[in-house]
Amino acid sequence: MPDGADVNFWAQAHEQTSLALREGALFPLQTTEKGHVDQGYSFRLLTITAMSEPQLAALIQAFTSADCPFCPPLDPKLTLGETRTGHQVILNKFPVLESHLLVISSQHQDQESYLGVEDFAAATEVLGDEDGLIFFNAGRQAGASQPHRHIQIVKTGRLPLHEWLGKGPYGQPRLPYRHALAPLDAAAFQEGSAGPVLFATYARLLTESGVAHTPVSPGIIQEAPYNLLLTRQWMIIVPRLSAQAAMDIPINALGFAGIILLRDESQEQLVCSQGALSLLAATCFAPSP
Question: pLDDT tens, 83-108?
């Protein structure tokens, strides 16, 4: 069993965050927050404020370097430990939300390949007993910033769209983009069974959403980009057409949970005037009839 098998990753994250901040290894993005309601759906708009020179330099280095930041050797100031499946758990170097963890494959695997049973087992092990959001940006058109497979986990409190999503697929107003949704019960997160149960649900939703037209096999390159969002109550797959909405607003899985990161006030004004749902829909397929 790997050394990190019994780690409380959230407690470890709290301690490691303090160290990483002191050592200049962590660069949280400072934002202002504004609530936005569109057609009865609530959103959190997070607009980035001024960046420091070290922060900007670190961002440029991260996104222009030919080196993979998730391949060994990992930055020890950001590393939390290892799961029972051998996945590495690290802090997000540029978090927008507090307690933002990454679960990465120990060897380089493509972000556009299908997840497997062990990926779901690792993510639920890291989540532990906490409530949070597990999400996966499957490829650059779905908002992924790195090609090395990484699943993300945040503790967000109650998500803006949780009330709608938690009701299951029947009887609620339609979202203006194609998606496939499945309610979950506590059995889906039981130790030992979470991986197989969640993978089976994932494979079914990939087919229902139109992402996969052939059987889903772990490690095989996907047929189309998509976002995966997973909580203790539901799993949703959203197929994607593009990573950006109007004015180059980047949309990843968090957008479909109701949390949208914006570069400046002009982007915030656009969202408020056009409505968040229409911007999300522009990056997706039209809903099925």
Answer: 999 999 999 999 999 889 999 998 88
State whether residue 150 is helix, strand or coil.
strand
CATH of the domain at 199: 3.30.428.70
Q: Give the number of domains in the chain.
A: 1
Instruction: Evaluate the CA torsion angle 17, 22, 25, 29 in order and state its sign.
Output: positive
Q: Residue 183 contacts by C-beta under 8 Å, 6 or more apart in sequence?
A: 166, 167, 168, 169, 233, 234
Q: Are 249 and 11 spatial neighbours (Cβ–Cβ below 8 Å)?
A: no
Q: What is the pLDDT of residues 153-212, one digit of tens each?
A: 998 776 767 666 655 445 455 788 999 999 898 888 988 899 999 999 999 999 999 999
9 within domain boundaries: no
**CA–CA separation, 35 and 29 (whole Å):** 18
The pTM (predicted TM-score) of the whole model is 0.92
- Domain range for residue 235? 26-62+70-281
